[in-house]
Amino acid sequence: MIQPTSTRGNLGKPNVAAGAFGLVDVTLRDAHQCLWSTRMTTAMMTPILAAMDRIGYAYINILGGAVFDVCVRYLQENPWERIGLLCERFATPCDALTRGQSLYTFELFPDDIVALNSEALAKRGISVLTVYDALNDNRNIESSVKSAHDAGMKVNTMMTYSLSPVHTDEYYVARAKELVALKADFISIKDPTGLLTPERARTLFPAVVAAADDIPLKLHSHCQSGLAPEVYQVAIESGFKFGYTAVEPLANGASLPATEDIDARSRGLGLNTGIDQDALREVSGYFSWLAEREGKPRGIVASYDPALYQHQVPGGMISNLKSQLQTMGMQARLPEILEEAAQVRQDLGYPILVSPFAQYIITQAVLNVVQGERYKTIPDEVRKYAMGYYGGLAAQPSQSFLERANIKPSEVVTERPGEHVAPWIPRLRAELGKSASDEDILLRAFFDKPLLEPLRRSAPSYQYKTSPLHELIRYLGSRSDINYARIRFAGTDMTLSA
């Protein structure tokens, strides 16, 4: 068995007492993914890490698919270095999320790449591997679960929530039982669009708790409908042990509930989260200032929107779609496209609107609307989805779609998707040479060579301490349009001039 090299001695041990409700922080991952297009750099994180560690989170989620991709593609940061730095700085156990057989991208990877990724994460100090499949085909997470356990990590398996005639309580109970059979350490319900309502939660949550066979349950729900905090309260009352949250400046809207809110609700129900209020205020203050300094939006509590329950498109995707339509001069057709997306989803057997299938549904809807004919053009990725290339479908696509796509029953894939992808590691090791590390092999598996060239430069130096005064002086020093400033702080009066 491969053991992680971290010497922290608390691998997978949460900062939460038995019988309490533990909070899992997503500020450094999902929160800025939803609100800042994943553009939080490592340098933005490091000044506040010590205070975050004092908050008392059960786990801190630091990595997901979009983070890995944006680090390389847009920030020119080595994601492996970020993982190692954060794991070293946190005594709180760290959590990393992958998309099952697709890991950090939309592509299916062979089992040898999945296993090597688990080994690399564990060596960097990750305590918990969180894994989900966008189709809830749990065959697609088998290799992740096994390799993560072999590497010494605990495994948090996710079921993705959706609304359709086939996504019933019984459907999720069946998926939960599959995860029990895989010997998951945790089971999570992942609601990426915030579709859960308190009413549905009151039937679904007790049923999943009963099916989980004493495996601790977690809730990961976004706030796009404005109902997530109420849903979290039902989860606590139903026996869930953990909930994902973000500090208030990066919570709500398309993000997740605020730590402050869920902590208060937990305490109101007589449960202790272990949260240090002083440390939480310090961290929230820092990210509030960071949003101001960087010109980034703060999360805003969303209003209830019944249209969300029809198109089910996540907020971040709607924002991107609006931008793209504006570029094409088609912004007025957004309602029409969202309405068509609901029809496309029905025709394709109700895929869940998470990556990559959310992108496939929207692309097909745009084509249908622009061309004025449904399924005149069908992208190859949509055909592969309908043929079962990515995994089993929740329901059979409509006959009209199958006819337009010219998909024959003999073309439908029935084996586990990972089985039709040949091993990559021998080829990559031959290509990169004996000196290539496991992390080099993985980066080359995920990205084309030109994207990796900027990562060769030396890592920047980071600031690990900060204060309001330090941040203010640093900010003023970075501004070329400010020539004079007078600061009064804690009994001190100082003047700064260019």
Provide structural commentary.
- The chain is an alpha/beta fold.
- The chain folds into three domains: 22-294, Alpha-Beta Barrel (TIM Barrel), CATH 3.20.20; 308-417, Cyclin A, domain 1; 468-497, no CATH class.
- It is 44% helix and 11% strand.
- It is built from 22 helices and ten strands.
- The strands form two sheets. An eight-stranded parallel barrel has the order 1-2-3-4-5-6-7-8, surrounded by seven helices.
- Helix 8 (169-181) links the parallel strand 5 (154-160) and strand 6 (186-191).
- Helix 10 packs parallel to helix 11 (259-268).
- The protein is globular, with a radius of gyration of 23 Å.
- Mean pLDDT is 91; it is low at 1-9.
Indicate the structural class: alpha/beta
Q: Any idea what the CATH superfamily of the largest domain is called? A: Aldolase class I
Low-confidence stretches: 1-9
> What's the story with the biggest beta sheet?
8 strands, parallel, barrel
Task: Name the beta content range.
Answer: 5-15%
Approximate helicity band: 40-55%
Structural Rg = 23 Å
List the domain count as a whole number.
Answer: 3
What overall geometry do the principal axes of the alpha carbons give? Answer: globular
CATH class of the largest domain: Alpha Beta
Number of helices: 22
Termini gap = 59 Å
Number of β-strand runs = 10
Q: Reading side by side through the largest sheet, how are the strands ordered?
A: 1-2-3-4-5-6-7-8
